[in-house]
Amino acid sequence: MAEVPLSPRPPRTLRQAATAPEPPPPPPTPAWDADLRAACAGVELTLVGLGDQPCYELPAAALAEVAGWLRARGYDYLRLVSTVDRGTEFELVYLLGGLSAAVDPAWVALRCRVPREAPAVPTLTGLWRGADWLEREQHDLMGIDYEGHPDPRRILLPDCWVGHPLRKDYIWDSDTMVSEVLAAELVSDEPSESLDLSSDEDGLRTEDLALNMGPQHPSTHGVLRLRLAVDGEYVRSCDPDLGFLHRSFEKLGELKTYVNGVPLTDRWDYLNAMGNNLVHCQTVETALGLELPERVHWIRMLVLELNRLASHLIFFGTYGLDVGAQTPFLYCFRDRERILDMFELLCGARLTYHYLRIGGVAAELPRNFLSDYVRPFLGYLQNQLDEHDALLSGNSIFLERTVGVSIWSPELCIDYGVTGPCLRASGVAYDVRRALPYARYDQVEFDIPIGQNGDSFDRYAVRLAEARQSLRILEQVCDWLEANDAETRGQIQAKTPRAIKVPEGEWYTCVETPRGELGLHLVGDGTERPWRYKIRRPSYSNLAVMPEVGRDLKVADLIAVLGTTDVVMGEVDG
Length: 574
What we know:
Oligomer: single chain
Number of strands: 17
């Protein structure tokens, strides 16, 4: 039989629907809309919608002015920077929220358009230091130029990469992806240009030592390379080098159908596969307007909180290793095995679960699952958490290594877009489960633990307290499932079309993972595949603070502080 040559996939274009779709409902007009227009009187502002939230379209030149006004109004959280390739132009989308105080609406979007030939906008690094990495990512993958950016280097791909792979017209040709200098650059022993090795002390010019930590160093918890300038035992500058685990999940998400994209999410943060599944399914369900059976929400909460406990147990064990305690590592992994046994019983997998589905879950709970497995484990783990706490919190060496070390102020965390336990350890009580409830978190009682000092100890203690709150949530979830088992058993899937096609439009939803706010900016074009699939990765933003907080630490303390971020490099590199 003659071989049939494979033809390349034709480039995608936004197709015109046969019939005009129903126009989305008008977005709510914020109470401060008139104040914004008065303060920015010379700016043409058009109020549209992004999902059910307001979005202002504006000229690119006015971006910094409008964003600055919103920040002063309380929108101090730069949640997301996204770029949509529209063919002849690019759409830049900025999502802003409030962390230091509640704002209404909960988030607002800014959208501007730039021509494809010269895509340039003003940088927002003067308003948010966290915009540094967010803008560098868009420059790297989309080719957007940010005027005035202090460090416009690539961040996920090597500097010698040719082109910008998230553009729709990018040619996937291995011969042109990298330049001829690739080999020379990858093996170069020269220190990074971003490291400042020179110093002038007492009139004597000295030079710090360039030190590579990683990417194979076990204390970096993954393939992370920290390029350090050290003076003796002290770190003078820290420059994270990312991308060793870059797998282009956003591009893969755009190439897969909505159904086939769910298993890919297991691989983002591979310690939080359930939460990854949820943000994908939840965003698609929101776009389709699906009403889920009530039982689905409670089963999802069950597996989400079990997954949160499993992730926090890994943190307790590995963080103990970072500061020299080996015993908690063994105990915590032993306890985590019991959770993995439950997941294996439920879905046949112990790491990449693929248990959540668009509109429901993959399988019903076994009839004895709660009584024989979950309930006994909750009582067992409550006692074990007390033991883990005593092993670490009562250890004088652990206290010396963590108390008062690397204090992160609330302002610093907000400025960088830090979320999750790292943010709450600094005293900011922001939790997506409470701020933007999903599933049925608005129907259960739980507290949001916060720290007082924002040091390494608080970042540990907040996670320990959160684990206890997860046990509290799980008790309530078990109560509901047992009380409603007879009426709801088997109701685990909403009715969905055979081919899931998301209509034209944009949506953003988010969930609270063990590392912070995980979000998805989805752009649909009426087909079975996303047009844009932008992931808001909490580990990425949390790691961005390291150049700031790593300065002037001892090298040994830098390792311990990095451990408190609890980042997963599969999520950081995207």
